[in-house]
Structure formats: structure tokens, C-alpha cells
Design brief:
The chain is an alpha/beta fold. It contains 3 helices and 6 strands, in the order αββαββββα. Helix 2 crosses helix 3. The termini are far apart.
Length: 198
């Protein structure tokens, strides 16, 4: 009588382990990207134009199209949260000159000691560069400011997909926040003639 019971319990345990192995861990629900922590810049222009000059790629080592938030989308969110147009003529043009993200595999160490260390399997490199141009009603550039930022880090072996996504998300947000910190004082000084007082 005991053998059938033992076989039944062993089968149930095997099925349970198989089910756990086939079900990936739940994906982390990453929050929407936002840069609305500071008051926006309001300009006496009719519109804000965003012109992407960088084209994202799905060809390795590029990873922009498989990230939870791409550098370009984060820049667009920064512009939506921090730049407003309240005028009847003219425009503010935003050129996205670079919004790249790449992943480069790293060589793994071999030997006995490597068995006891967590190795770094790849390096993530991200870069953004933008130019903001103030245009008159004839589309001539009256003034401009530029900014750029980059972030790099390595990824350890054994990362789960949601852990990797969180790292990429945090890197992008931190990078575009740094871009904003670089551009803010330039906007305040160079674009002062077009600023609408709140």
C-alpha cells in the first residue's frame, strides 16, 4: 500500500517542479517615465518640433528596440514634461542627434577560480545628444543650445529578465535626467528672450 502512495507523491512532486520550471517569474511593472519633478519651461512659440536624426536599430550590438524604455522615448518624455509652447508664431525645434544603446559581450574567465566568482557577461553603453533650436516664423535658427550624456555599466551573469529590464530602465532615466541637468541652465540663459513668465 505504501509503494503506490510513494509513487503518487513522487509523480505529484515532479509535476509541481515541472510547472514551476515552465512558468517564468512575473515581470516587474515598471512605472511610466516622468521628468515632471521640476516646473516646465514655457516659451513664446507656436509649437515644439521633435526631429529624430538618429535611427534606432535591431542589429547587434544595438538594443534600443528591445529595451523597456528606449533613450529616444525617454528624451521625448523629457521634452513633453519640461517644454511647453504658448505663442502664436515661431517654433522650438529639438534635434535628437544620438539616442543609442548597445550591449557588448565580455570574455568569460576560465579555470578553477572562475567557478567561485560572479562574472560580468556584457557591457551596456548608452549615449544621448540633442540640439534645441529657437526658430523664427521663417524657420530660421535664431539661437540654439546643445547637450549630451552617457552611461555605461556591466551586467553580471545569472540576471533574470525583469532584473535586466530594471537596470536598463534605471540607466535610461538617470542618463536623461543628467541630460536635463546639463541643458537646464543653458535654456535659462540662452533662451531667456523667448521665455514666458509664469
Amino acid at each position: 500500500m505504501r509503494r503506490p502512495l510513494i509513487r503518487f507523491l513522487a509523480l505529484a512532486l515532479a509535476l509541481l517542479l515541472a510547472a514551476c520550471a515552465n512558468n517564468p517569474p512575473p515581470m516587474e511593472n515598471l512605472p511610466p517615465v516622468s521628468f515632471a519633478g521640476k516646473p516646465p519651461f514655457v516659451f513664446n512659440v507656436a509649437k515644439v518640433e521633435i526631429v529624430p536624426k538618429f535611427v534606432s536599430s535591431s542589429t547587434p550590438p544595438h538594443i534600443e528596440l528591445v529595451m523597456p524604455v528606449s533613450p529616444e522615448n525617454a528624451i521625448r518624455r523629457w521634452m513633453q514634461d519640461r517644454i511647453q509652447a504658448k505663442g502664436s508664431s515661431g517654433a522650438l525645434r529639438v534635434l535628437i542627434n544620438n539616442a543609442s544603446a548597445t550591449e557588448t559581450p565580455l570574455a568569460k574567465e576560465e579555470g578553477f577560480s572562475a567557478m567561485f566568482t560572479t562574472q560580468q557577461t556584457s557591457r551596456i553603453d548608452m549615449s544621448v545628444a540633442v540640439t534645441l533650436q529657437m526658430l523664427d516664423e521663417r524657420q530660421f535658427v535664431k539661437s540654439e543650445v546643445t547637450g549630451e550624456a552617457s552611461r555605461s555599466r556591466t551586467l553580471p551573469e545569472g540576471l533574470k529578465l525583469n532584473e535586466r529590464d530594471r537596470i536598463l530602465y534605471d540607466m535610461v532615466v538617470d542618463m536623461v535626467t543628467g541630460l536635463g541637468q546639463q541643458i537646464d541652465p543653458q535654456i535659462q540663459n540662452t533662451f531667456a528672450p523667448w521665455t514666458v513668465l509664469q
